Amino acid sequence: MAAGMEASGEAACECFDLAKRTDALEFDVRTAPHPDDLYQAAAKPPENCCTGGFDAVGKAELDGYSGSGYIVVHEAFSKQEVQEIISALADVVRDDTFRAAATETARLQASSQLNLANGGCNPVLQYENSAKALPAAERADLRNVRKLMGFHEHSKTLRAVAERPALQAAVRSMLMRAGASEAEVAELEIFQSLALLKPPGGREKPWHQDNAYFNVDSSAVKLVGVWIALSEVSAENGAMHVMPGPVKEMAPRPHFSRRDWQICDSEFAGRDCVAVPLSPGGALLFSTLLPHGTPTNTSDTQRLALQFHFAPRGARRTNDASRLRVFGGEGLGVSC
């Protein structure tokens, strides 16, 4: 049997290695299954919710954000808008220019000439590991894609989603609740655009804080994530699961290279968390210090989601060493 192969003929699971820089690889790296009790969702639904679009985010929701670190907005996008977004993502996947740019991103990252932790619009197209078996001409389909990144300068439709005035107004208010000044949030930048398309069997994204992936000083620069459901999202097919808490009390947690760059399983195993099921067009807005994760898709339906991260325009970047001094468990002398 060839090295690195299981008896089934599939690629063996690998432990995530931060040093290998696999974010932009063409095919995802298979990892081990997560423990059964890692996403133990409480029976109660999310509490800080509103309906009717981002204009519905008012003082009550912002007060709730201050106490929980998230806001759920139901019906943020219409059914027609959701279909237009999905079509735009499909166009990106099929676009030869984007695919070539994604190949270049992978090359630059592998040679340490590009650091995705600095944010920006760097195209990434990553297929599910299983798509290796498909002819190249058949791969360019959303059903085979795990992750898309850096598309907001390649699609007017997708950029318009991020630039929706009511969405950006809600993000500004959330940033100020986290401690940013009105002057700091006068202009926003799209720190990252991302689509996570979890097919049946699609692997988990373990518990983490987004700031652990970003080269910004989390004590000084506040960011907000916006996660938009493009399909029915349930606990079974990989809904976001969060550990709420007061936003100003959220602090960096040690991360480790295990199944991914993640918080140690022992932090949350057996603990109740909040699952965030959404209908198409619903959105979750959250602090990038909010611990969250998505379990393996155990259903027979694909889970589609679009995500943006926003920062004050011109937010000062740090570097990997500075980030790992704050979030790197091994460097902090913490074990997992």
Strand order of the largest sheet: 2-3-13-8-15-6-5-4
Per CATH, which architecture?
Sandwich
CATH topology name: Jelly Rolls
CATH class: Mainly Beta
Q: Spans with pLDDT under 50 lasting ≥5 residues?
A: 1-13
Report the β-strand fraction as a percent range.
Answer: 15-25%
Order of helices and strands: EEHEHHEHEHHEEEEEEEEEEH
Distance between the termini: 33 Å
Instruction: Please report the total strand number as a whole number.
Output: 15
Counted up, domains total 1
Q: Tell me, rounded to a whole number, the average pLDDT.
A: 93
The CATH superfamily turns out to be: q2cbj1_9rhob like domain
The major beta sheet can be summarized as:
8 strands, mixed
Rg over C-alpha atoms, rounded to the nearest angstrom: 19 Å
Structural class: alpha+beta
Shape: globular
Question: Percent helix among the residues?
Answer: 10-25%
If helices are DSSP runs of H or I spanning 4 or more residues, what is the number of helices? 7
Protein name: Fe2OG dioxygenase domain-containing protein
Organism: Alexandrium monilatum
InterPro entries: Phytyl_CoA_dOase-like (IPR008775)
Pfam families: PhyH
Summarize the structure.
This is Fe2OG dioxygenase domain-containing protein. With 336 residues, the chain is an alpha+beta fold. The protein contains seven helices and 15 strands.
3D architecture notes:
This protein is α+β, with helices and mostly antiparallel strands and 336 residues long. The chain has one domain: q2cbj1_9rhob like domain (Jelly Rolls), CATH 2.60.120. It contains seven helices and 15 strands. The strands form three sheets. The protein has an eight-stranded mixed beta sheet. It has a five-stranded mixed beta sheet with strand order 1-12-9-14-7, with no helix packed on it. The protein has a two-stranded antiparallel sheet with strand order 10-11. A hairpin with a 3-residue loop joins strand 10 and strand 11.
